[in-house]
Amino acid sequence: METLSHPVPVTGKPAEDRESFATLLGRWARVLGDETALTCLDHRGAADGRAVTLTWRELDRRVSAVAARLSALAAPGERAAVLAGQSAGYVVAFLGAIRAGLVAVPLFAPGLPGHAGRLAVALADCTPQVVLTTTGECDAVRAFVPGVAVVAVDAVPPAEEREWPAPDPDAPAYLQYTSGSTRSPAGVVLTHRNVLANARQACTAYGAETRTTSAVSWLPLFHDMGLILGVGAPMAGGLASVLMDPPAFLERPSRWLRALSASPGAISAAPNFAYAYCAARVSAAEKSFVDLSRVVALINGSEPVLPATIAKFHDAFAECGLRPEVHRSSYGLAEATVLVSVTDAGKPARQVTFDRDRLAAGSAVPAASGTTLVSCGRPVGQRVRIADPATGEPAGPGEVGEIRVSGPNVGRGYWGRDSAATFGLPPLDPQTGEGWLATGDLGVVFDGELFVTGRLKDLVVVDGRNHYPQDIEQTVEEHPAVRPHSAAVFAIGTGDGEAAVVVLERAKGSDAGVAEVASALRAAVSAGHGLRLHDVVVLAPGQVPRTSSGKISRARCRESYLDGSLTDRRLG
Asked: Residue 294 CB: number of other CB atoms within 10 A?
């Protein structure tokens, strides 16, 4: 069995340093002072965005004012939930809670379409003592959380300077609620030690440097990748942070690229779909305003990285100075703060084609045709191993198994839940005492690099054969009548055993008949995967269930299919 170890030093600081994102903010305020720390691009009233900026000193003062207000409302260790839109106020609220010694809970405002239920579940789970928001969202938040103290951070007056107690590095810094793509959202308990280790690991892996690197992001701050990229790494490395609202990106993806162009030495990250979306939606006229020659790293993670997407993105923006080696594929999850592995800097991510049938059977064997996977590189400051998910025994060379992770960035467990089956599994490291995190993801180590093959719970097993849903979804989305990035494949139980169902959205402007589309997809999946589809559900655009971070939720699709709420909306 091969264990992948970190190619960069473990960057978690010793316990006696007693640091947090908030203490580091104070340090940068003294060192960088009037240099810009945070820029929020507001596109609500201006197509090109109105820049709202805070210097390091201004940000530090606003955070201290909020922390002082919180100290009068809650005791250290109590939860402070952030219910706000993407803004400078969100950053101030999050860091203010940490500075006051509270456990921050980064969530979202009640108005996020389709996710009121998830927000209610998270609030009931973490039972916050206080909720932080902004003036414009205050009324909606008060109505959503009656009986809980609500603070509008942009209305808090300045406070006198004071010394804040140094945190216990092993005390919780915040609860990171999972996106709920495969289960009900759970709050991962992340300590100051965990999040600082991962933020520093990210800075090291991406080559970020104080004063010369900017972190540019449209990812929501309540999402693990968005929070570490937009707040954590800037606090750890003294990086300027440039943020925009996710809808601003979706309305006009060129806004993200223009923000990258305006930020020398930029690093950024996005799910795979965003790169395909840019390639398809950014016009030739918009490209004339884009210069990507100074971008340091574009991280592709959070969902399977598709070779075709990488090719389309680079073909579309090579004329804008984009270098192929800038694209870095990664793997991570909230239970490990976020980042686990990433491909090496300075060269394109490796792609390997494996025999599809043998891969489904649990063995990675290179072949001339089959399933092409993109490497997720090597761990950063941690260790990765592949294990049998049932026994925990190490997998053999080239064998597919569950990805397990060990390192200072791995969280302590789920808030209020028994987490023994997921966190701290043996064997323990004799030097650090760290155990292993069972990720629930499947992968293989091939030639020293990690390749992710799918999720354990998402496997479609029909007639004794394993099928990776993303493979089938790729085949489905090749049909011109299927909207890109809209298909979900899952298994259901029938009287004859397990059967496969595909749910998808019809492409805008397509006039193909539902029966015609379903017949073509059944034939394509049968020919390409040897799988008979039990049902094909065609929905209107925007109807396939997604998580709060925008990913297709196979679990919610399956639940909605079984209770009939999904099939009630089918076309045809």
From this structure: 15
> Whose structure tokens read 């006039």?
511
Q: How would you classify residue 541: left for phi > 0, otherwise alpha for psi between -120 and 50, otherwise beta?
A: beta
Contact 501, 492 (CB under 8 A): yes
In a 13 Å sphere around the CA of 252, the CA atoms on its Cβ side amount to 16
Helix, strand or coil, per DSSP, at residue 225: helix
Q: For 187-203, write each residue's pLDDT tens digit.
A: 999 999 999 999 999 99
pLDDT reading at 17 higher than 80: no
Helix or strand run (H / E) with residue 174 = strand 172-177
Query: In the chain, what are the helix, strand and coil shares in percent, each to the nearest 5?
Result: 35, 25, 40
Residue 517, CA atoms < 13 Å, CB-side half-sphere? 26
Report angle CA 206, 212, 215 to the nearest 5 degrees: 55
Angle value at C-alpha 495, between 571 and 362, nearest 5 degrees: 90
Question: Encoding tokens for residue 157?
Answer: 């007056």
pLDDT digits (tens, 9 = 90+) for 22-52: 999 999 999 999 999 999 999 887 767 789 9
Rounded CA gap, 132 and 99, in Å? 14
H helices of 324-421, in order, are 356-360
3-class DSSP state of 557: helix
Q: Which CATH number is associated with domain 334-456?
A: 2.30.38.10
Which fold would CATH assign to domain 459-569? GMP Synthetase; Chain A, domain 3 (3.30.300)
51 — phi, psi (to 5°)?
-85, 125
| In the chain, domain spans | 19-332, 334-456, 459-569
Task: Give dist(CA 96, CA 61) in Å, integer.
Answer: 10
Please check whether residue 566 is in contact with residue 503, taking contact to mean a CB–CB distance below 8 angstroms.
yes
Look at the block and give the residue holding tokens 């965990």: 194
Calculate the alpha carbon distances from 236 to 26, 195, 221 in Å.
11, 10, 16
- Reported as half-sphere exposure (CB side, CA atoms, 13 A), residue 58 has a value of 14
Could you tell me which of 531, 513, 512 has the C-alpha nearest to residue 523?
531
Nearest partner of 196 among 206, 188, 207, 204, judged by Cα: 204
Tokens of 431: 């030097």
